[in-house]
Amino acid sequence: MRVLAIDHVQLAMPEGGEAAARQFYSELLGIGEIPKPPHLAKRGGCWFEQGALKVHLGVEKAFQPAKKAHPAFLVDDLAALRSRLTAAGFTPREDEPLEGCDRCYVDDPFGNRLELMERDSSP
Predict the structure, then answer these.
(1) What distance separates the 2 farthest-apart alpha carbons in the chain?
(2) pTM for the full model?
(3) What is the number of domains present in the chain?
(4) Domain extent at residue 47
């Protein structure tokens, strides 16, 4: 027996945050929304998926944003994404360099920390 992969990442959001989640994850990050199964949809939240990338946001009544724990998303044009996020009012934060990639952090609309990474294309 062994763990094979991560199926999805679940992040918490406050009740009623679906519109903000859609604007951020679908419109800004470009991860399409898929319908939640009917028996789970009644709980609120949103699911965003694109190929193997699956980000689920679930409503948590006593919501607290994840400030340290975070998913790291690989992107293909980090400079353009930084500009898009900044124009939408989200401030990317730089951190110490990580060999082989350019990266930054940004908080989603609920204060959850996300890492955005672009691998260096140089050999």
Answers:
(1) 49
(2) 0.92
(3) 1
(4) 9-119
